[in-house]
Amino acid sequence: MTDPSNPQSGARERDARSEQAWWLWKGPALVWLALIVLFGISFGVAYLPLGGANLAAHLAIAAVMIVLLVTFLMDMRNATAIVRLIGGAGLFWLILMFSLTFNDYLSRHY
Amino acid sequence: MTDATLPFVPPLDSYGESYLDDGHTVMSWLTTTDHKRIAILYALSITVFFFIGGIAIGMVRLELISPTGLFLTSDEYNRLFTMHGIIMVWFFLVPSIPATMGNFILPMMIGAPDVAFPRLNLMSWYLYVGGAAFTVYVLFSGGVDTGWTFYPPFSSQYSHSDVIGAAAGVFVVGFSSIATGINFLATIHMLRCPGMTWFRLPLFAWSMYVVSFVMVLATPVLAMSLLLISAERYFGLPIFDPSAGGDPLLFQHLFWFYSHPAVYIMILPAMGVVSEVFACFARRRVFGYAFMVYSMMTIGVIGFMVWGHHMFVAGQSQLANLVFSFLSFIVAVPSAIKVFNWTGTLYRGHIGFEAPMIYALGFLGLFTIGGLTGLFLASVPIDIATTDSYFVVAHFHTIMVGGSVSAFMAGIHYWWPKITGKLYNEFWAQFAAITMFLGFNVTFLPQFIMGWLGMPRRYHYYPAVFQVWHVLSSGGAVILATAYLMPLVYLTWSLFYGEKAGDNPWHATGLEWQTPSPPPRTNFLRPPRVDVDPYDYHDFGRSAETGDEAQARPQGEPT
Amino acid sequence: MSDTAGALQHPWPNLRLQREGVGLGMWLFLASEVLFFGALFVGFAVYRSFNEDAFRIAGAHTEIVYGSINTALLLTSSLTMTVALRAATTNMRDLTLVCLAVTAALGVAFLICKGLEYREDLKEHLFPGPHFPLSPPATQMFWGFYWIMTAIHAVHLTGGIAVVTVVFVLFKRRIIPVQGSTMEGVAIYWHFVDSVWLVLYPLIYLAGRS
User: Fold this and answer.
1) In chain A, which residue's Cα lies nearest the Cα of B221?
2) pLDDT in tens, C4-43
3) What does the alpha-carbon distance between residue B315 and residue B258 come to, in Å, rounded to a whole number?
4) Mean pLDDT of successive 10-residue segments in chain B (559 residues)?
């Protein structure tokens, strides 16, 4: 695509390319930074004596991290309706499995 | 995509040539990515396993003629009924309709040139073969004696048979059905031909859609439960071991999370097939098409919420019993809607008793019996009395054999002219269909009765009072076996000596009938386009007054 | 503009739909995988809810340093994988190749860390069995799940590395063009394996630290 007889157009091409490269990195890098920060917070929380709340905090942070990852890195925000539906189905069936299994375990009195 | 607008142009060199002539070597079959050939590969392999599983249970039925056994040790007896269960469930019933007729007919029905991922489709057959290889190995290494349900702690700690080998076979074959499911879902979503909107999909395509979802979401849980059993058995990890705080019931939860929906994996495709057959041979539009679709979806979803009815006496909580019992009753509603609508389709139809229709009518009756006895078992007090009795055995065989296998035979006979281009002998087909219905009832009605009287399942020796029922049941099994062997003969015969079928011998409306039989490599000579709803037969049936034998309007035509 | 002609597969009518189809297929597979791991998590949750203290005692013996390093490695690999996909769709072939290589390398680094960690665990005899060093007995349950969960995750990651390597070679030798539908599926799968780890990490390494 670059015209070798015209060095200026090559330079413009390179500029456009480096701008594009910046665009490529910027979004994902921000998400990566957020993930690393959340990971650090989760790590720190582990050493606070919160009792039962430790696990809840960890899982909540993990949930946020996964939402970030799925939304931005797996690009769910630009996904078609059917892909969202499939993601939702996976989640729904997971909840189904948890709730009906725990429906047994939490109501046992022996 | 809400509406499909996919033009496609088949390559010129494939015009007119049947898929059977697209290479004649063994390698051309083993490396094919043609969905029609893969369907045939599947059909051949599941037929082999159907008869292996049949031989296993044939020996069991023979043994049960005498209350003290005839020729088997108890250990051999246990292994035989276990192998029967494993083979019939995972190597015949689960892939039966989807992997053969689904593979062959579904893409043609929606006007697609192939499934979405042809190579994945071939891989799924190889996964099946891989799982089958494990199972054959287990057959020769002495079998497995846990029952098809693999319950711990027996399977994980005490059994001396090859549990891991059998589990590996089931594990691998599970991925073959996940692959098939993914493929069908992507196909139905992305490759419908122009004009084939969601509510113009024939009900068989809808049934494939729902069953694929169930396969994709249920099968992995089975895989994990088998993995956990194997880890406990092989590495000694105490996953279900009560001495380390484990709970054997957890396995049952996970196992039935798959294995109850698996019943719907077996019956939903059957529902799809008979919907096609009823409409065609009653010359009637399917009654309540939209309700048929919604009820299949409802069955697919609610089917996931009822697994605990297998565990009423296993020790789960009272509340769980209550909830699962309630949900099990709920799932009967959409099933009943379907039975009602099939009957409504037949009403005032001009019914022809061709072989596929006889099989389908057999399905209707047996599915109703199986469904109603299922309601008995969904009710906790009755289930407590009949748990692990022959009543349960007869109930689920009525659904899985009376229902699914009848529909499988209906489908094979219905689409045989399309698949092979040949007509089978109608008399023998009708004879086999009637024999199968009679044989089935002679086999399983005695089991309902003796189960109700208290005969437990899986017992090798039994009190002499039950002998008469066992002998009746074994006699019925002989009739049933004959009925299964007959199609093998006359269908094979038709391949060589059968009349040419023509494109549309039943004057059916589906898109798959608007192309040559056998179809060309890319399914259609010219890209099809759909203009009308499915089942445009006669609004009030092929009524006697008008003598209207005219062809029904095809759902679509080549552009 | 580019060599997309070889990218179109039977039976797809055009590359846009094919890419959408591959994404759809991969998402379906992941929905399946969610339930696969979900079954494991249900088991873990049930046992933890009945043996809270034992799980805390057992959790304190995991190697948090290795676990944390691995979390960082995987998160970073997701970054490079995303860039690889974006570069591929805009046909920046060199950047795609570099990012794929880095991604695979980070994956391998994860596996090496995991191996070192396993060695430490085995040195302390933390494998359930008759001579298990911890008590009460339910600590063995935690460690049983530890081995299964990490091993299954490692198998998934190994599969991911293998696929990335194959794709790298195919791109490098120009057997398939980078803007085909391949990267779509590979990237989604890789992120999924990463997100499973994000659940495993707190369950295994962070329990019982306070």
Assistant:
1) A97
2) 666 788 888 888 899 899 999 999 999 999 999 999 999 9
3) 19
4) 45 65 90 95 97 96 95 95 96 96 96 94 97 96 93 93 95 97 96 94 97 97 96 94 92 96 96 96 91 96 96 94 96 96 91 94 96 95 95 96 96 96 96 97 97 95 96 97 96 94 89 91 89 79 47 74
Per-residue pLDDT band for A105 (boundaries 50, 70, 90) equals very high
Site of tokens 């023998």: B428
What CA–CA distance (Å, rounded) separates A86 from B67? Answer: 53
How many Cα atoms within 13 Å fall on the side-chain side of residue A97?
A: 34
Q: Which chains touch A (3 or more CB pairs under 8 A)?
A: B, C
* Cα B416–Cα B182–Cα B41 angle in degrees, nearest 5: 35
Phi, psi of B528 (to 5 degrees): -80, 160
Please indicate if any CB of chain B lies within 8 Å of the CB of A63: no
Cα(B255)–Cα(B150) distance, integer angstroms? 9
d(CA B181, CA B321): 31
Question: Which residues, listed in sequence order, are joined to residue B558 by a DSSP beta bridge?
Answer: B528
Contact yes or no for B307 and A89 at CB 8 A? no
B contact test, residue of C32, C37, C156 with most B CBs within 10 A:
C32
Buried b or exposed e, range B297-324, using 16+ CB within 10 angstroms? ebbbbbbbbbbbbbbbebebbeebbebb
Say if strands B528-530 and B556-558 run parallel, antiparallel, or are unpaired: antiparallel
- Residues C82-127: tens digit of each pLDDT: 999 999 988 889 999 999 999 999 999 999 999 999 999 999 999 9
B215–chain C nearest CA distance, Å = 9
Give the Cβ contact number of residue B66 at 10 Å: 15
Sequential DSSP letters for B388-428? TBHHHHHHHHIIIIIIIIHHHHHHHHHHHHHHHSEE--HHH
Identify any residues that bridge with B538 across adjacent strands, giving them in sequence order. Answer: B284
Contact predicate B210/B182, CB 8 Å: no
Q: How far is CA C186 from the centre of its chain?
A: 12
Closest CB to A104 among B1, B213, B317: B317
Q: In the prediction, which pLDDT does B1 show? A: 38
Q: How far is CA B468 from CA A47, B65, B74, B182, B479, in A?
A: 71, 9, 21, 48, 17
Residues 6 or more apart in contact with residue B551 via CB below 8 angstroms: B504, B507
pLDDT at A19: 72
Q: What per-residue confidence (pLDDT) applies to B4? A: 45
Calculate the alpha carbon distances from A35 to A24, A68, A69, C74 in Å: 18, 8, 8, 11
Helix axes A7-45 and A53-68, enclosed angle (nearest 10):
170
**What is the Cα–Cα distance from B461 to B69, expressed in whole angstroms?**
7
- φ/ψ of residue B500, rounded to 5: -65, 135
Q: Which two tokens stand for residue B509?
A: 């409306």
Alpha-carbon dihedral B197, B198, B204, B207, rounded to 10 degrees? 160
pLDDT, tens digit, 9 for 90 and up, residues B191-245:
999 999 999 999 999 999 999 999 999 999 999 999 999 999 999 999 999 999 8
Q: What is the pLDDT of residue B540?
A: 53
B366: its two tokens: 């047996």
Q: Contact A104/B253, CB-based, under 8 Å? A: yes
What separation in angstroms does the CA of B453 have from each of B260, B386, B467, B469, B535? 26, 9, 12, 11, 46
What pTM did the predictor assign? 0.93
Instruction: Name which of B8, B190, B241, B255 to mutate to probe chain C: the one with the most chain C Cβ atoms within 10 A of its Cβ.
Output: B190
Whether the predicted interface score ipTM is above 0.90: yes
Instruction: Give a three-class secondary structure readout of B334-390.
Output: HHHHHHHHHHHHHCCCCCCCCHHHHHHHHHHHHHHHHHHHHHHHHCHHHHHHHCCEH
For helices B390-397 and B355-378, the axis angle rounded to 10 degrees is: 140
User: Residue type at B457?
Assistant: R
